[in-house]
Structure formats: C-alpha cells, structure tokens
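Dear H.,

Thanks for agreeing to be a second pair of eyes. The structure we're designing against is below in token form, covering all 467 positions.
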C-alpha cells in the first residue's frame, strides 16, 4: 500500500485497486463456501476420518473452482463492461485466476492449522506476502529504472517484459504470481486420495456449510459493500473514484487491527473446537475474549497516538481521509468481538445463526450506506461499517448468552474499551486547545498510551498457559 499510494498520485487509480479487491473478497466466499470451518467441524467435533474429510473437501473445491473461474474468464469482457472497465477485460481474467489459486490453498492451510503446524503455516503466508511485495517493487520501481537506462542488458529485459500502459494492472499481476507460487509450494499439503472421496460425507458437509456460505456472503457484504457503494453513491459523482481511492488507502491504515483479528481467527477456531468438551471450556472462552479485547484496545490507541507518523505510509494526496481511521478501528474491534462471540453457534452446530446475524448485518449495511454515503461521502461509509458491526456484536452477545452462556467479564471489558476511546479524545482535545508542536504531541500521546498500559498492569494478571 505505501508503494501504491505513492506511485498512483491520482487517488482514482488506487480506487480501481480498492474496488476490484472488494469483489475478490466477495467471490472468495462463494469459491470456498464454508469448507474450512466444515473441515474443522467434521475432523474435530464429529471425529470423522481426517483424510476422508480433507480429500472429499479438496476434490469438491477443485471441481467447483475450475467451474467458477472458467465461467468468469469466458465472460470477462461482459463483466468488465458491467464494471466500467471495458478497456481492461484482462483485470477480470487475472481476478479469476487469483481467486482460483487462493481457493485451492484454503483447505491445505486449514489442515496446517488443524495439525498445529504454526511454523509451516506462518512461513507460507509470509512467503506469499513477500513475493507479492517483491513483484510490486519489481514492476513499479526496478523495471521503470531499467526501462530508462541507455541500452544494455537491463534495458533489453525491461523492454521485453515491461509495459508502462499496464499501470494499475501490475498490482493484480503481482498478486497472481504470488498466489501461483504459494500454490506450488503447498503441493505437499494438497495430497489427497480419490478413493477417500465420500459422497455421503459430502452431503453432510454441504448441509453444514450452506448456512456458513449464506453467512459468509452476507458478512462480505458487510465487509466490502462500503467500498463498492462509494463509487455509485458518492455526493460528488465526478470524483467518485478519487473518493474511493482515498477511502481505500485510509482503510488500510487499520491493517494492524485487521491482521491481529485475522491471526486470532486462524488460531482461535481450531483451539475453541479442541477445548469444547473440556470442563472449564466456557471459562477459557471468557478469558480469551477479555485479553482479545485488551489487545484490540491497545492496537487502537497505538495507531491513533502515532497516526501523525503512520500516515506517511500513504501518499500525501490521501491524507484528507485520515478522519475515517478511528471509526474504522473501532468498527473492526467490534467485528473481532463478534467473531469471538459467534464461536458458540459453530461449537454447538447451530450454524444457521451465522446466517441470521450476517443477513441482519447486511440489511443494516445496505440501509446505512444508502442513507449516509450520499450525505457524508466516504465518512458515511465508515460510520455505516461501525453501525453494522456494533449491531451484529450486540445481537450475537444477546443470542449467545441465551443458547450457550459464557461468563464474560462484560463490565470490565467495556470499561477498558471506553477508557481507550476516552484517552484518544483527551489527545484530540489537547491537540485542539494547546496546538503543541508535533514532537510535544507525540510525547503527550506516549504518556497517554503509557497510562493505559500502567492501568492494565495494575488490574490484570498475565493469562495462564492454555493447553
């Protein structure tokens, strides 16, 4: 992102990236249709043969991935026209391939999580990220330099493989190459046996995963629709892509919170299933929730207290959107709490509730975006995201406590969150009233963050080791 927002001086160019990745996220739900959670459910809770579960899921995903990607590639020109990218149907083809490759690694990654092979999992994920970054730097920094050289081998290489007119397209090419390389590296984890394919088991998996698919689709509406609707509902239609680019770039500044929540989900799902039948499982879930929220609150404060430094990760032309960052951080915190709360319906096999919550959130998302974006632009999209996730969080908490009560320390958790938000407003108030120098403001913010950490150290003990 720092590279893209500095390369693409016009936010409208980054708007293309923001929009198409929103569609990629949505399509990933359709491609995987809840198969990862189904794998954990049938491998752990139902005690089915792990090899049969994996092989059945892998063969099914392979078949549907070939079908879905084939249809998208075949219809790429039509789809490009619908999205106002008539001149770039290749974007749609690249999207289909990226999604296809990532789908084929989804279940192998889930298997690594189920086998507690955290190191292998982390290495492969890191390789994917680093290869993606490497190719972005190659296409946007190295090749342009070689292309301007006065002859020589490097200039010849650049001439052969570099086309400046591709522009934004190199973002997708880099991702495609990274996904392809990750797929190749995961071949050892993808081994399955056709003889282990079980039609009866597949039927059970489909029944279990269908509500998860509905929940996933509705959930992705909640996660991505704001970035899609900014383009169509912006109060300034002539600059809609510019607004989308600014919003998308500033959205990424909440990446630390997003990464933590994603890492938590990867680790928590198999852990929660493994704890389910233990006597003290509910106490463990409550403790995990408390420390999860504390970590989210610390991340929120750290980002906001040092936003004047962090903002340099995006180009200056995008800074006008920084006001969305605190709203989106709190929204993502609510989403993380919702994920934590909602394990109850997966643990008890009542996955239909996942669909209920997600559809409920989707209605709120659509309504809030339609009301707020025309009035407030991308700031309205940020508030719509917070309203949606907070509503889903509350709904899951109330329903979960009726169906699978967990002794959460709700009052203490709420105090910690409000205290963090309060310190943020103290920082804003000091900056507004005293107008200190940048260095002095950073010192003040560091003291405020230190105050929060000190309070935590006085009232919280380190969690016991969980096995």
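And this is the sequence the design step returned. I haven't edited it by hand at all.
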């Amino acid at each position: 992102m720092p590279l893209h927002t500095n390369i693409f001086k016009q936010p409208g160019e980054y708007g293309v990236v923001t929009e198409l990745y929103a569609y990629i996220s949505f399509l990933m739900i359709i491609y995987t249709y809840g198969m990862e959670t189904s794998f954990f459910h049938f491998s752990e809770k139902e005690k089915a043969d792990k090899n049969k579960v994996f092989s059945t899921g892998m063969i099914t995903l392979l078949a549907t991935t070939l079908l879905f990607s084939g249809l998208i590639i075949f219809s790429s020109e039509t789809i490009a026209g619908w999205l106002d990218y008539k001149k770039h149907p290749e974007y749609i083809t690249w999207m289909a391939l990226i999604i296809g490759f990532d789908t084929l690694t989804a279940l192998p990654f889930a298997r690594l999580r189920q086998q507690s092979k955290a190191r292998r999992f982390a290495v492969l994920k890191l390789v994917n990220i680093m290869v993606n970054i490497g190719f972005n730097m190659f296409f946007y920094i190295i090749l342009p330099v070689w292309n301007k050289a006065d002859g020589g081998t490097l200039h010849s290489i650049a001439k052969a493989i570099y086309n400046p007119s591709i522009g934004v397209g190199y973002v997708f090419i880099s991702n495609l190459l990274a996904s392809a390389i990750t797929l190749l590296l995961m071949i050892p984890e993808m081994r399955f046996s056709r003889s282990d394919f079980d039609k009866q088991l597949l039927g059970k998996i489909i029944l279990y995963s269908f509500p998860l698919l509905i929940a996933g689709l509705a959930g992705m509406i909640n996660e991505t629709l704001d970035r899609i609707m900014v383009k169509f509902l912006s109060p300034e239609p002539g600059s809609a892509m510019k607004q989308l680019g600014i919003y998308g770039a500033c959205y990424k500044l909440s990446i630390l919170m997003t990464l933590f929540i994603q890492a938590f989900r990867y680790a928590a799902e198999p852990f929660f299933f493994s704890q389910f039948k233990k006597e003290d499982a509910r106490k463990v879930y409550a403790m995990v929730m408390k420390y999860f929220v504390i970590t989210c609150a610390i991340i929120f404060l750290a980002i906001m207290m040092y936003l004047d430094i962090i903002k340099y990760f995006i180009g200056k032309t995008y800074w006008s959107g920084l006001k969305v960052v605190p709203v989106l951080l709190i929204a993502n915190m609510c989403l993380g709490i919702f994920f934590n709360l909602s394990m109850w319906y997966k643990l008890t096999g009542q996955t239909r509730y996942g669909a209920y919550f997600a559809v409920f959130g989707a209605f709120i998302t659509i309504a809030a975006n339609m009301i707020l974006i025309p009035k407030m632009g991308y700031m309205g999209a940020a508030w719509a995201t917070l309203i949606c996730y907070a509503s889903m969080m509350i709904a899951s908490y109330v329903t979960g406590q009726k169906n699978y009560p967990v002794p959460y320390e709700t009052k203490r958790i709420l105090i910690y969150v409000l205290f963090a938000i309060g310190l943020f407003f103290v920082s804003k108030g000091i900056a507004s009233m005293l107008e200190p120098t940048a260095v002095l403001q950073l010192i003040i913010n560091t003291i405020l963050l230190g105050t929060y950490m000190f309070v935590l150290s006085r009232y919280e003990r380190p969690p016991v080791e969980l096995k």
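Two observations from my side: The two ends are 38 Å apart (CA to CA). Residues 138 and 197 are 42 Å apart (CA to CA).

Warmly,
E.
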